[in-house]
Amino acid sequence: MDKLKLVIPSEEYLDQVWAYRQECFEADSSMDGCGPLRFNENPKQWLADIRNYMDPATVPEGKVQATQFLSVRESDGGLVGMIQVRHTLNDYLRQFGGHIGYSARPGERRKGYGKEQLRLALDFCKGTLGLDRVLITCKTENEASRRTILSAGGVYENTLHEPGQGIDLERYWITL
């Protein structure tokens, strides 16, 4: 596996982000950890939206401050995953979303990138945000995500049904 780095999205990466989005649509794959990527039709609007989440002065009402990262391969600058770190938890995130959402590009899965991007995000949570522990959730049928969470030291708490999405989510805590 090539070494990864987490980078803040910029105009430089928008073509790759949009290709990532298209690949997820074609694979009928979720876009967890991508902010509002699924719902944006305009790359520049997506970039503006995630920047609003990153600035405490412009976080949308009812939402929490979050840092959006791209997981980029150091060897060639290729986008292999996306991960979003929520700085705090509101009621919804405390139950269903957690501190971290992430996904790997469909063509880059099963290569260890999920584990590495989560490790890097946990370093950010501890070193930059000063968090002692984080909550991460995954769908009950997402074995790959469960393995990624467990590999990072995740401890299962419970499974809750998210009525708005009609899905069951396993909740894990990771002590930093």
Nutshell version of this structure?
By secondary structure, this protein is of the alpha+beta class.
Largest sheet: 4 strands, antiparallel
Number of helices: 5
Strand order of the largest sheet: 1-2-3-4
Estimate the helix proportion, in percent.
25-40%
CA-atom Rg in angstroms: 15 Å
Low-confidence blocks of residues: none
> What's the SSE pattern?
EHHEEHEHEHEE
Question: What fraction of the residues are assigned to beta strands by DSSP?
Answer: 25-35%
The whole-number mean of residue pLDDT values reads 96
Label the structural class.
Answer: alpha+beta
Intertermini distance: 24 Å
Q: What shape does the CA trace take?
A: globular
* Total number of strands: 7
Descriptive report:
The chain is globular and about 40 Å long. It has five helices and seven strands. The chain is 32% helix and 28% strand. The chain has helices at residues 14-26, 43-54, 91-97, 113-127, 143-151, and strands at residues 4-7, 66-73, 79-86, 100-104, 133-139, 155-162, 167-175. The mean pLDDT is 96. The strands form two sheets. A four-stranded antiparallel sheet has the order 1-2-3-4, sandwiched between helices. The chain has a three-stranded antiparallel sheet with strand order 5-7-6, sandwiched between helices. The longest helix is centred in the C-terminal third of the chain and has 15 residues, at 113-127. Strand 2 and strand 3 form a beta hairpin. The protein has 176 residues and is an alpha+beta fold.
What would the keywords be for this entry?
176 residues; alpha+beta; four-stranded antiparallel β-sheet; three-stranded antiparallel β-sheet; 5 helices; 32% helix; 28% strand; globular
